[in-house]
């Protein structure tokens, strides 16, 4: 990859599912992908949830390395409660609880700071997105701002200037968030700092997907609003004297799939006689449950017999869609729980991993259909979220939620290239650093993208199957250069 890039701008559209990108829905993105690069087999991380995925983007590593497993998780030996990442307060409280070791891998923010290169993040997202993308950036003197929550911004002189010059209400922007985020970058970040790397992150597509579903007019409107920003971003680049040294990436952190059924796994376990809850605050609790599309289970005490009983119960449920647990031994595809696959296959092992991750499956297909075209809908454990039937969700391994958008244009990238080579959200940070001529730390397990063969490349498709139980968990993916790239998972 040629190192002729001096500046990289990433525009992230939270929850944008790549098969929804068409010339009619998002003409600017379709044109940018046609003129630049488009990755057709780009995926996120497991669990496919925003704050875990954004941390993976920033650190170039999966949860197994960076420690942030989705939007919430449990860490043994620190507190009876789960770690949450929804607000900036959650991040800092968790970091205090973990003695400054919440995020266990350096991010692109830290690497650029060490290289003496400026970095900026502007979001129109919930308050937890900014720390995921620029953890501790304020302490490094870097730039961060959230147009929906303008009290979250740094340095203070920049935040005050942006707030006043763009007339952002004190309560935040409630409409046109993506365009406002771009305006903050265009008018208040770029002219002053010209960052080596900038990330603009917009949540609106994700929000309306959750609330209104994948065929809603609201979703189409937000997709077109984000596409307008892509058009503005490309026009901005083309107007810059430095345009030949500016690279653009358009990305998403996950897709969506339709909710066809809901379940409260903690309640189901309790009804079956197990003592399950969302924390270990009650001394009688045996099992801590993390909700979502991928439900995490931690036992208070190591008890293989209890875990087998839980496994047997869960595998009999209509909502069961796969089982994953820490590897039975290093390098094994089998998990410690019989009938499960190793979490390490998904980059989700490590000391913070649950004893069992239960992937929730597809709903019966008699009258359900995924509204974006896949003939599936799925079960979901909403926990404390108010998500309902027919809305969108994510967090698991269904192709609709596990795939993500990656398009690129500009300095250092090919023109008119469509790649079928598998790629991951963890590849973005090392690719940015390579474009900038900066060495990536060894913790960035993602690879540098570029120079891949196009759709003519022969790919070796493969499946990994669990053994030892009457319901078989499977992962589908591609074997490439000695590595198995997961594309989807479920049960056989």
UniProtKB/TrEMBL annotation:
<dbReference type="Pfam" id="PF01663">
    <property type="entry name" value="Phosphodiest"/>
</dbReference>
<dbReference type="InterPro" id="IPR002591">
    <property type="entry name" value="Phosphodiest/P_Trfase"/>
</dbReference>
<protein>
    <submittedName>
        <fullName>Alkaline phosphatase family protein</fullName>
    </submittedName>
</protein>
<dbReference type="InterPro" id="IPR017850">
    <property type="entry name" value="Alkaline_phosphatase_core_sf"/>
</dbReference>
<keyword id="KW-0614">Plasmid</keyword>
């Amino acid at each position: 990859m040629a190192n002729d890039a001096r500046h990289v701008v990433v525009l992230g559209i939270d929850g944008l599912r790549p098969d929804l990108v068409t010339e009619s829905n998002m003409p600017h993105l379709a044109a940018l992908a046609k003129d630049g690069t488009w990755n057709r087999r780009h995926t996120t991380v497991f669990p496919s949830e925003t704050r875990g995925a954004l941390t993976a983007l920033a650190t170039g590593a999966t949860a197994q390395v960076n420690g942030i497993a989705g939007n919430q998780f449990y860490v043994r030996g620190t507190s009876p409660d789960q770690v949450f990442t929804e607000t900036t307060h959650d991040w800092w409280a968790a970091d205090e609880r973990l003695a400054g070791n919440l995020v266990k891998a350096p991010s692109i923010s830290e690497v650029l700071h060490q290289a003496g290169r400026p970095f900026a993040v502007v979001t129109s997202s919930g308050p937890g997105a900014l720390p995921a993308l620029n953890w501790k950036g304020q302490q490094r003197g870097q730039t961060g701002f959230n147009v929906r929550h303008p009290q979250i911004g740094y340095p203070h002189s920049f935040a005050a200037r942006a707030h006043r010059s763009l007339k952002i209400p004190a309560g935040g922007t409630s409409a046109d968030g993506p365009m406002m985020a771009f305006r903050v970058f265009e008018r208040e970040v770029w002219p002053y700092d010209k960052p080596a790397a900038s990330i603009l992150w917009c949540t609106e597509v994700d929000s309306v997907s959750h609330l209104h579903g994948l065929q809603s007019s609201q979703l189409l409107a937000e997709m077109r609003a984000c596409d307008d920003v892509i058009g503005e971003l490309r026009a901005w680049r083309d107007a810059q004297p430095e345009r030949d040294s500016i690279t653009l990436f358009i990305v998403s952190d996950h897709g969506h799939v339709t909710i066809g059924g809901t379940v409260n796994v903690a309640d189901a376990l309790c009804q079956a006689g197990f003592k399950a809850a969302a924390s270990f605050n009650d001394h009688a609790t045996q099992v801590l449950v993390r909700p979502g599309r991928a439900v995490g289970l931690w036992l208070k005490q190591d008890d293989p017999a209890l875990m087998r009983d839980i496994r047997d119960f869960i595998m009999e449920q209509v909502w069961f869609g796969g089982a994953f647990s820490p590897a039975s031994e290093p390098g094994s595809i089998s998990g410690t729980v019989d009938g499960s696959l190793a979490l390490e296959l998904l980059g989700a092992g490590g000391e913070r991993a649950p004893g069992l991750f239960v992937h929730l499956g597809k709903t019966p297909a008699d009258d359900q259909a995924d509204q974006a075209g896949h003939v599936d809908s799925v079960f979901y454990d909403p926990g404390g979220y108010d998500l309902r039937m027919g809305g969108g969700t994510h967090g698991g391994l269904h192709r609709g939620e596990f795939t993500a958008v990656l398009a690129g244009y500009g300095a250092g990238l090919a023109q008119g290239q469509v790649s079928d080579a598998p790629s991951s959200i963890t590849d973005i940070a090392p690719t940015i650093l390579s474009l900038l001529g900066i060495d990536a730390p060894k913790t960035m397990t993602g690879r540098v993208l570029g120079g891949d063969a196009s759709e003519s490349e022969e790919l070796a498709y493969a499946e990994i199957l669990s053994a030892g139980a009457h319901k078989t968990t499977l992962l589908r993916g591609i074997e490439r250069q000695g590595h198995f790239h997961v594309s989807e998972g479920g049960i056989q």
